[in-house]
Every structure is written in structure tokens, then in C-alpha cells.
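Sample intake sheet
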Amino acid sequence: MAVGADDDVSDHAFGSSEQLPSPLIFRLTRRVTASLPRQSEQASSTAVYCGVREFSCDEDCVAIPEWLLQTAGLAVGEPVAVEFVRPEKGLFAQLQALDSAAASVGDLRAILEAHMRSNLTALSVGETFRVPVGDMDQPLSFSVVALEPLGAVDIVDTDLSVDILQADGVVVDGQIGGAHSGNTMSELVPGTPCTIDVQTHMRLHEMKEQSARANMVPCVNRECIRERADNPLGLCGICFGPLYSGQYDPDHQKLLKRLARNLHAQLTSGCGSKRCHNMHCASGRANSSAEVAPLSHTEAAAMLVPILRAYAPLATATKGHFAIDYSGIDLHLCV
């Protein structure tokens, strides 16, 4: 199969996969031929993992974004092997910004998270991807430094805990798409580096955001510091995403059932993250240094009652008007 550059649509340059959901993940490597011995291949080509945007190329051809070509060490016209794979779900990733301009981006974590959710299906150690940011002329580049549990992971529909390093190595954020981590991180303060726990780190960022945007209404999820979006549950777009459905649901009862189901599973089975310290999650309780007993199904169900009772007015709410006191909802989602 021959490689072709995919530069017809600007979104392709950043790995967009909007047209086809991606349970399909493929590994791309340079194909060994008589003129290209295996030793040479190993020295100059890197395996990369990606999803599929669409099936529209000519037979025996594949179109690959420029950034992915560069990561794989491939050139246009080279023979490439495309192999369907099933990598394990990712638990942790460490990403390093390669551009000093990343330090000036106010909400780097949210921008990076949105890009990864919309455009990437898998990550592998050593790869570099680019993220467009607002009015910046050039996208920011990020390198994948480390992954768990393996060197290549699936990041679709999974809670991925992420450390983000600036170009100078300073850790700037510690969570994408997962519950808060209990690890510590180094933050550069005037004069000396200071190590603070993640909870405090997140609260500092929250205070900065609130001072910059005094009118910001926060997400109802107590494990999140993003701005609330326009949805019945009072969540930000990231937290609401896993609960969204296009089904006809005028009284929001199907939505509340999905919320109850997700919360009950979180309380009894957990999110699966080894870095979760959400005490409203079985994984967080198991990871706690204190001896915390797991919740029974009955105990978990009892914890849902006040949450669902607070959302009860949704049954009679008119479109776009939700008569709910969101401030009293004690909701802790691992997202």
C-alpha cells in the first residue's frame, strides 16, 4: 500500500476523525521490501497508531496527515503496512509541550482535552501531534513522553490521567478525562519550585480562572473546575458528553436513568483509574491510603437518592428553563 499526503482539508492536518467513529485503530509501519531490509526499517521508521477518517482513497493507497507522516518517518509514495490492532485502554499519559508559546495559553488543559477527545483515537510513546489554539498562527506541538499501561494505548471512551509538561519541564496540569489524581506536581513559583498536591493545584487554577472571569458559573460536578454549559444537569460540556444521547427525551427521564446508572457503576465498580482519588468512586476508595470499605449496591443506591431528588424538577421543566438549585447538588463524577 502506498502513502499519500492528506492535505485537502485543513482539519486533516490535525488528525480529525469526525466522519467515522473510531473503535477501529490501525498500526502503520514502513513495509519491508527487498530494497528495504528490516534493519534499515527499524532504524528509520516508527510505528504509529491512528483511527480512520473515511474510506475514500484509491485501492492500495492510504492518505496520512502530514504530522503523522513525520512522526512515522515516512515519505509520500513509500510502501506502508496497515495492521488492525486492539491496544489496551490508556490509564496515564505524560505529554510535553514542544513550543514555549504553550506557557502563555490560559486554559491549556481544556484546549488539549477537547482536541484529544475530538481528533485522536490512540497514543504511542515518541509520537508528536499538533493542536490548533485560537488565534495562534501555528499549532502547538506535543510529544508523548510516557504512557501506561503500555507504550501504545487506546484513548477512546476511557478515563485518561495526563501530566502536561511545559517546554521547560514544569508540570502545568495533571488530569484529562479522568478523576483527580492524588499525586503531587511541581509548580514554579517566584524564586523557588514548590511541590503541591493536585487538589490544591486545581483550586489555585480555579481561583485564577474566577478572578479572570468573574461571571463564570462552574460545572456542577465537584470534581471539575470548568465552566458550566447549557444542559439540564448543569455540567460542563466535557462532563456532560458521556451522558448525552440523541434520543427523544422531553421529560429528561432517560437522561436521569443514564446518570443514575453511571453513578451507581462508579460507586460500586469504579472508573478503573489507578490515579483516582474521588471518594465517590470505588477506584478512588480502593486507592485511598486510609482503610475505606467498599460500598454495597444498596449503599450506592442510597447515595443516588438526594442527587436524583434534586434533579426531579426536570420532569416538568420547559425547554431551556430548568428550575433547579444546582448549588445544592453534591455530584462527584469521574470524567
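Comment: The two ends are 39 Å apart (CA to CA). Confidence is low (pLDDT under 50) at residues 7-22, 38-44, 173-178, 181-198.
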